[in-house]
Amino acid sequence: MGPPNPRQRFEELYTEHYAAVSGYVRRRTDDPHDTADVIAETFTTAWRRRGCWPAGDRARLWLYGVARRTLANHRRGESRREGLGNAELAQVLGCSRIAVRQRLHRARKRLATELAADDPDLARYGSRAVSLAKETS
After folding, report:
1. What is the pLDDT of residue 94?
2. Among 80, 98, 118, residue at a domain's last position
3. Cβ distance 97 to 88 under 8 Å?
4. pLDDT for residue 133
5. How many domains does the chain have?
6. Axis crossing angle, helix 32-48 with helix 58-80, rounded to the nearest 10
7. Which one-letter DSSP state was computed for residue 30?
8. Which of 68, 103, 115, 131 could be a cystine partner for 122, CB 3.0 to 4.6 Å?
C-alpha cells in the first residue's frame, strides 16, 4: 500500500499533535479567542506547507515552530491595532488636541446616555467610559 494521501496524513498530524500544540499556545495567550485564532492559523499554515512536514516526533517540534511564529505575527498585529492617542487623532481629524478631547468627552457622554436608555444595567459601562475620559484628559 502506498503512502497516505495528504488529507489523511494531515488528519493524523492534527489528531496526534493538537493537544500539545493547543497547550503550547494556551500557555502563551490570555484571551480564549486569541488562542483559538492562533491554533487555527497554526494548522492552516501546516496544511499549506504540507510538503514540509517532517516525519515522526519531529512533526511536533515543527508544529511548535509554526505556532511560535504564528504567535509572534499575532502579537505584532495586535500592537498595530492599538488605539490612537489624542495627538494622532488630532492629526487624522485635522483639528487640535483640545478639540479631540472635547469630541471624545461628548461622544462618551452620549454613549453613557444611550446605554442607560437601552438597558439600565449597561449605564455603569457608559459611566465608566466617561470617568476614564476624565482620567486620560
Report:
1. 92
2. 80
3. no
4. 45
5. 2
6. 120
7. S
8. 115
User: Do 50 and 66 share a structural domain?
Assistant: yes
H-assigned helices in the chain: 6-26, 32-48, 58-80, 86-93, 97-118, 123-136
- pLDDT, position 129: 46
CATH of the domain at 48: 1.10.1740.10
Within 13 Å, how many C-alpha atoms sit on residue 36's CB side? Answer: 3
Note whether 11 and 69 are same-domain residues: yes
- Under DSSP, the state recorded for 54 is P
pLDDT along the chain (137 residues), means of 10: 77 93 93 89 93 89 96 84 81 91 86 72 52 48
pTM (2 d.p.): 0.57
So what's the pLDDT on residue 112? 75
Amino acid making up residue 10: F
